[in-house]
Every structure is written in C-alpha cells, then in structure tokens.
Amino acid sequence: MFSYRHGFHAGNHADVLKHTTLIAILRHLAQKEAALTVIDTHAGAGLYRLDGDYAHTSGEAADGIARLDAAAKPPGAIENPSPSPLKHLAADALAPALRDYLELVRGFNTGGGTPKVYPGSPFVIERLLRPQDRLKLFEMHPADAKALEGNIAQLDAGRQIVVSRGDGFAAPTPLLPPPSRRALLLCDPSYEMKIDYARVQQLVAESLRRFATGTYAVWYPVVPRPEAHDLPRKLKSLATQSGKPWLHATLSIGMPLARELGERPGLTASGMFVINPPHTLKPALAAALPQMLELLARGAGHGQKLETGG
Ligand code: SAM
After folding, report:
1. Of 142, 164, 171, 232, which residue is the least packed, with the fewest Cβ within 10 Å?
2. Domain 6-261+276-309: which CATH number of 3.40.50.2000, 3.30.70.660, 3.40.50.300, 3.40.50.150
3. Residue nearest to atom 6 of ligand 1 (CA)
4. Counting runs of H as helices and runs of E as strands, what totals does the chain give?
C-alpha cells in the first residue's frame, strides 16, 4: 500500500513551493496572540538527509532547495548542484517569503555549504510554533512514523507536539474546531492511490462543515491525470459553497534539458490550494513565485500562476 517515501523527494521544487507557502501562512497566523493548532495530516519522517541514499538516488533536491541555495550565493561560491545553468540573485534581492524559507532551511545546516539536512513540514512548522500553539502530526507509513516519532522525541516538546499513526484523511476532523478556534490544516498526501484525490475533498468538505473559519492548505501534483486536474476545481467549489476566500498557486519547472531527456523527468509541476488564506499570502507569493520560477525553471513547460477568489 505504501511505496511512497518522501525521502526520495525531500527539498524538490514541490517542497520549495509547499514550504514557502506554509511559512508565509504561519508567519501571519502567529501575529495574533491566541493559541493556534496546526494539523499536518500527512507528516512524513520530519527530517531528511540530502546526502543520504534516498535523496542521492533521486537527486531531486538539486532542482529545488540546493539550486535555490546556490542561486542566492555569489557566483562561484558554490558548485551548481543541477545540470541547468544557474541564475544568481543576491540574498537580499530575494522576495521576503523565499528568503524566509531559505533561512529556515539554512538554520538546519551549519557551515554554509549545500544543505545536507532538509526539514519536512513537521519541522518547518515546529520552528514557528509559540509556547501556546499545538502541533498534531499524522503519519501512517510504519518506517516514516517511527522516524518521525524519534525525530520529534529529540525536541522534548511534551504535549505540545503529538504524533499519531492514525489515518490523516479521517483522524484529524474530530480535532476541529480546536478550543481557541484558530487552526491551520496542511493536507499533503502522496496521491499514490487515485482515491486520495477524493479523500482530500472529503476531508476539506468535512473540515469546513465543522469549522468554516479554519485555514486549509492542500498540496497536489500537477500530473496528466483527470483527478489531479479536477482537484483544484473541486476545492474552489467547496470554498465558494462555504462563502470562503481561496488562493491557488502553481509552479512548473518544466522538462529537464534535452541532454537529460533519457532520464525520467519526474514531477515537473505542483500546486497549493489554500482556503481562508491570510490576506498577506497573495502579495507574499506574488513576489516569491516569479523568483522561484526564474531560479528553478529547467526547460519546456515552465511557468507559474497565482489566482485568488471568494
Ligand atoms: N508533509 C510532508 C512534508 O512536507 O515534509 C511530506 C508528506 S509525503 C508527501 C506524504 C506522506 O503521507 C508519506 O510519508 C506517506 O507515508 C503518508 N501517508 C500516506 N497515506 C497516509 C494516510 N492515510 N494517513 C497518514 N499518512 C499517510
């Protein structure tokens, strides 16, 4: 049932989009004093080695965080991790949301070289938690759940962070609404099974029914599959039916350069759909997305899009 391991994909372009968006949302939500509950329905292992076997085999971080990190260093300071020519932007020219993301990842890496450790969503969120906030993590893969439990135990966070092996599509809804009536739910499944697309919709529909003012962030792959194509349209309908605003951002880095075409292109594009986005998210991504594209684009089919409604 579970063949997907995020370790093969950690730090890729999809993580750059997802985690930049996640940080921008959390920065805004943390401005209000009242406690926030963050639910990560598909948490993964939490921390990943980019120089370990998994990441090394796929090399996906080379077209994501490693490329962004190198692009924000002076030319020649670090070897280009990817075969596509590297553009440079001074770190202080980066859009604030992208710089915030890069600095958070660099915080897990000392020494200034190419990042070797990548924080998954649990650790991205944990870095931004305040004492009054709570984090609920769900992960069902036995090996990743065990790794996540071990990684979280090191934080000594007590009851502030709870790891559950429950089903991330079903177990989180009873947690809504939390006592403080402030919550962010991140839904980031692997979409290994076609039914995952329908289960995302069910989760969002049920969550909105229980707690219409929560913020719901869904990541999805842009792949030639009807369910993937329909998902943002269906989420838009759910938001509209509930009378709630939404934001939809997509990033495509395009196909690998011709000389690499012998290899499988892997995932070339993904999207984030956010219901009840903070009002600061649109301007943050409007500045960050064009730079993500400029720095990460490889070849044919690259592009970015940001739309909002409601
Ligand atoms: N959110 C993580 C991050 O950004 O670092 C990555 C998560 S990865 C894309 C999806 C994870 O969901 C995998 O680790 C997989 O084992 C797990 N998973 C799959 N089905 C699940 C389910 N029904 N409930 C909870 N976790 C599940």
Report:
1. 142
2. 3.40.50.150
3. 44
4. 9, 10
- Closest by CA position to 177, among listed 199, 224, 210, 206: 210
Dig out the tokens for 129 from the structure. 């938690």
Catalytic residue IDs: 188
In the structure encoding, which two tokens stand for residue 208, read together? 């909105």
What CA–CA distance (Å, rounded) separates 150 from 40? 17
Over residues 163-177, mean pLDDT:
97
Confidence of residue 146 (pLDDT cuts 50, 70, 90): very high
Closest CA to ligand 1's atom 5: 120
Q: Is the pTM of this model over 0.90?
A: yes
For ligand 1, mutation pick of 140, 152, 162, 267 (most atoms within 8 Å of CB): 140
Nearest to 281 by CA among 70, 4, 8, 27: 27
- Indicate if ligand 1 lies below 6 Å from the C-beta of 195: no
* Number of the ligand 1 atom closest to the C-alpha atom of 119: 5
φ, ψ at 12 (rounded to 5°): -80, 180
The rounded Å distance from CA 22 to ligand 1 centre is 16
